[in-house]
Amino acid sequence: MTGGRVREEAERELKGSVDGLADRLVMTRAVVEETLRLYPPIAALSRMARCADMLGNVAVKARSLIVIAPHVLHRHHLLWGRPDVFDPSRSLPEARSAIPRLTYLPFGIGPRICIGASFALQEATIVLAALGAHFDFELAGGANVWPLQKITLRPANGLPMRVTPRCGHLLGQE
Fold it and tell me: What is the CATH number of the domain that holds 75?
């Protein structure tokens, strides 16, 4: 189970030096990246065509607005095996080369890529590891989680969770 692997990795790596910590949290990073594949924070990327071109078999005029929806791209059946399945192993280092270029765009692409993308990935990885090492999380009974796109993607009704300190990891008892 992925949660167990993240917890084991976090417990092991959080005991060591903080230098290069995010780089050592390989499974945790894969979980973050797979989550971003299924639920990218941005709804659409728009760009203007510099010149006339062809997009597949569609003629694109110069200055046409092109819109790319990462949510659709990240779940495209021709680009991803089992695209609707949460599978962090596809984001592990040994599998990354199988991801076709320009099919994973959670923070955009090119000169307008989110300038905080690298920091956001490091921060999310370390926070997930720190929380996963100390707490168990369970979706509250009866909760219905549905994505809502505002400026960024978020759960429509929040994310009600039952958070339980892990035995032996109560605050101040380590």
Answer: 1.10.630.10
